[in-house]
Structure formats: structure tokens, C-alpha cells
Amino acid sequence: MEGIRKTDSIQRQTGKPADGKTAEEKDKKKKSGRQTEDGRRLTDAGKTPAASRMPKQKRSAGRQENARQKGTAEGRKNTRAGKKKRPPEDSKRRGTARDAGRPRDSERTVRHRRRRRKPHPLQIIILVTALAVFCYSAVSLIQIFLEYKKGTDTYDKIAAQFVMDPSEEEDGTPSEDTGVQETFSPLNIDFAALKEANPDVYGWIQMPGLDVSYPVVQAADNNYYLYRMADGTDNTAGSIFVEAANGPDFLDSNTILYGHNMRNGSMFGRLKDYGEEEFFQENPSFYLYTEEGAWGYDIFSVRVVSATGDSYQISFASAEDFTNYIDNAVRTSMYDTGVVPQAGDTMVTLSTCTSSDENRLIVQAVRGEQVN
Fold it and tell me: For each of the chain's 372 residues, which pLDDT tens digit applies?
């Protein structure tokens, strides 16, 4: 108690506290202490004294403004340095928590492409089917080509063996073209040797404009030579054969000769060329050979008819029936040939297939003068 009274006595005498400091000085020291303590706490927390006294929302807005100002300052600094500000590594890919653990976009793209490259079973089936169809078609085309070649080679061999063409030299090469139109020279055919090789051979047909020169055969059944060549071997080209109901001497009122419409132009494959009147004007006739001689046949009608129609009539009950038949053939021809057969004439009908199974193309001609 004595000490306290002594301190108070000193303070009343000097007007100052016993420690020599006034109340104002103590207040300043106290404030300074608080600021120093606050500074330590804010330094540890990474905050300014002002921010510590701000509400939470204002502090957040302040941080954003400071960050914006800082970014602006750094951007200006980088611009002055001639450099672009590189984005933080974390900003290269943005996403939510749902993206955690997912591969990067490039990795997903690669995996997606790998999944697409794996063919679907249906695609494999389609591919295999298409490949099988292609192979089958290729094999079929090769077989057709070989059949055509075999047929052509066979008939060329027959012609070389039994026929002599006066328009060719002795070595088999065509004679030199002098530029002058030569008269028709009939073929020299060894029918005795031909009939010895095949007794069914009854004639030979020559159509210079169509490059047709084949033996003519006949059997008791029209199907026999349908896919069989004149030498007896099987081939899709078949033969030029006479209707089984006709006589073998071409003396019926209408003798019918059948031949395939081959795609390579062999047999009667080019008979459709007579569908053009201009071609007819250049090739108005063809020739038939028998053991008795050779005759020219003048074309009087070219038309498409029913496969089972009256056009295939081979004999007539009267001259009137024959005349009516000829009148109809001339009237329905694709063009007027200027040739009209008369009663008592004999004619030949050349028949081949068309694109329709129900129709046939026929070229009809009447026997003319004997050429050999």
C-alpha cells in the first residue's frame, strides 16, 4: 500500500506516471502493439489488415479486383517485353469433377478411331459376299471368252481344211486390193470330205458383209446342234442348222436356218446389222452352197416376229396362201427392199434370238441365180 501511495504522490507532483510515460504515449504504444500483432497475424494468413476487417463478400471481390489488376499489369509487362503471356498449365484443359480420371481429348479420339477401324461382322459378310460375286463373275467371263475362242478356232480350222477361197492367194493371204470392184467369186468347197467328216453337213452359208462362212448341218432333233459344233464337239456357239422338218436340199417353199446371236459377232451374231437399211443397200444378198451348186439369195424382208408365229411356215397349201404370206412379210418389213417373191419361188429364212425370249429376228431371202 505504501508503494502505491508513493507512486500516486509522484504522479501528482510531476503530472506523469511513475514509469515516466503519459497516457497519450501509452495509448500510442498500445495501438502500435495491436498493429504489430495484427500485422504478424495477417502476414501469416497472407491478408492485409484492411481485408481482415472487411465482410467475406467484399474480401472476395477485393481479391478478384487485385487479381485482375495484377493480371493487367503482368500483361502490360509481357507486351512491353514482346512476349505473349502463356496460360497456366491448368488452363489447357477445363472441366468439372466429372472429367476426373478421363483421358485427354486426343487420347479419346485415337481410341475412338481404333474402335471404328474394327469391322462390324455384317461388314465382313458383305465384303466376303461382294468378293465372291466378283470372283464368280470373273471366272464366268473367262469361261465365256474361252468358249468363244474355242468356237471361232474350230470353225476357222474347218474352213481352212475344206474350203478354198479364190479371193485369197495360194498361201492363204488376201489378194492385193487394186481399187477396182471385183465380181463375186464363189467358194470351192470339198463337200465329199466334209460329209465324210460329218454326214450331217448338207451345205455352206456365206454372207460376205457379215463375215459369215459356216457349214450348214441338219439333225432329226433341232436341239442336237443347238450347243454342238459341226465337228461334234460341245460349245455354246452351236451350229448353223436347218429346221428338222425341212428337206436337206433347200427346195422347200421356206427353208429355215437357225443360228445363235453370239455376243462376239460369230454365227448369226451380226444378223441384226440388217436392221439398218444402209447396210442392206451395201449387202443385199448372201449365198448358199450344196453339192449341186451355189445360189445367190436376194433379201426381201427383215423383221422381228413371234417365236411361235406363222412366219416359220415351211409349206403352203396353195399359191394364194404363198402370195398372202409374201405380202405380209413385205408389208411388215423394217424397210422396202424392192424384192417380191412370186408363187413357185423358194426362199430361206435366217432366224436368230433377240433380247426377248418371245421374239426372233428373221432375214428372209428368195433364191436367185446360180453362181456356181
Answer: 444 444 455 455 555 555 555 566 656 655 555 555 555 554 454 544 444 455 555 555 566 666 566 555 565 555 555 545 555 555 445 555 455 555 555 665 656 555 566 777 887 888 888 888 888 888 878 877 888 899 999 999 999 999 998 876 554 455 554 443 456 789 999 999 999 999 999 999 999 999 999 999 999 999 999 999 999 999 999 999 999 999 989 999 999 999 999 999 999 999 999 999 999 999 999 999 999 999 999 999 999 999 998 999 999 999 999 999 999 999 999 999 999 999 999 999 999 999 999 999 999 999 999 998
Main-chain dihedrals φ then ψ at residue 79, nearest 5 degrees: -65, -45
DSSP code, position 210? G
225 to each of 127, 207, 222, 349, how far by Cα in Å? 42, 21, 7, 18
DSSP letters spanning 315-348: --SSHHHHHHHHHHHHHTSSS--S----TT--EE
52 Cβ neighbours under 8 A, 6+ residues apart = 38, 41, 42, 45
Cell numbers describing residue 172: 492363204
Fold that domain 142-169+188-370 belongs to in CATH: Sortase; Chain: A; (2.40.260)
Residue from 183, 139, 156 nearest 296 by CA = 183
Q: What gap in Å lies between CA 204 and CA 242, rounded to an integer?
A: 11
Q: 145: which 3 cell numbers? A: 471368252
pTM score, two decimals? Answer: 0.65
